[in-house]
Amino acid sequence: MSEHDTSPNLDDLFAAYTSGGPLVVPPGVAAARQVARRRRTARIVASGVLAAVLVATPAFAGTWLDREPPVPPAGTPTPTSPATTAPTPSICNSAFAIRCESPSVTSSPAAPPPNGRIGEKELGNATLDLPAWPAYLREHCPAGRVRFSDGRAQLSPDADLQVKILQVVHADLDRDGAPETAALINCGGLEMSESRVLAFDRNQSDAIVTTGLVVAETGDIAGIHRIRPAGSAVEAEVVDFSSDGIPDSLAQHQWRAYSWSGASFVQSGGPTVFPANPRITDLSISGGQLRLARVDDDQAEGVLSLIIGNQGPQPATEPQVRVHFPAGFDVTPLPRGCSRFVSSDHTITLTCRLAALAVTETVALDLSVSVRRPGLGAGKAGEYRATVFWSGSEGATYPEPNGTHRNSLVTGSLIVTD
To answer: Are residues 315 and 397 in the same domain?
Structure first.
């Protein structure tokens, strides 16, 4: 320090401050120099503090400093701004924070789910996507894009089978807060019938779309009678057999629930199988060709032996056998429990009531068959057809388990020998 510079330096001032000594400087040229030096020192200290703050808190420094961004080189592609603005880092924990506000992110509100409640009249006059029917119905029942009118549709105006919407219910099947529609649909006629339950919804364009197949007549389900909503599920009343002419009371009924899994409908409640129905058992019949030996010029005779069995799972209390013969044939004498009916075309139908058959039990039915025809020559003279069934006292013929009907019928040739 120059000998002419009589102003105290910072060390002296600090020592004076900490010791409690006087800080007042005498007036004059020396005082003016001291004030100037103090102001310069304060500027230096302040600059150093600010620099330290900016180095320690770059986010804060970037907020306060207003600097122009660097100019990119020529040909540099311009970055694209993202669809949503990233929130500004919070400095609420900083000692230099001026204000603390939660960052806000702007987002578009989600569109509400479509209302899939479709009335029976609207559904019955819409074009619907129907999945393919089982193989035996594909030539008779329409599938794909099908136009309904008054709840009905068919392949052609003269088609034997017709698709009908039998029942419509509503439930929030996909749990999105809006209802969907379930419909019981049947394709049937005089000889064939099949029911299924389909689910429908609307898309964002308000068009009706098929969500999926809820339940069909598969496995042990032989019929679907009705449906009802159950929370976010659909319940279907299913039966173990369903056929024309069979009293509904003979079938076993169950309510089974079906729910949307996100990809398809699966059973979510109720029984999964039917117990053995006490009115259903697998009856079988077998018999070969009948060879009739000529006894004179206009008559031949032979014995047709039919074997009847019960494959189970239930005992059959009243099994019966029915045999058809072409014109010119007869059965004499009639076995016990058999009756004969001759039609207008002279064909014969023989009906025989058998004793009860336990499970796995078999019995033989022997029929003495004769044929009378002038000028009858040797060779095939016709064909017989025999069926076995279980009929109750109320006159209903009980069905058999699925897939067992073929062994309930047998046909054979009637051959006259020399």
So the answer is: yes
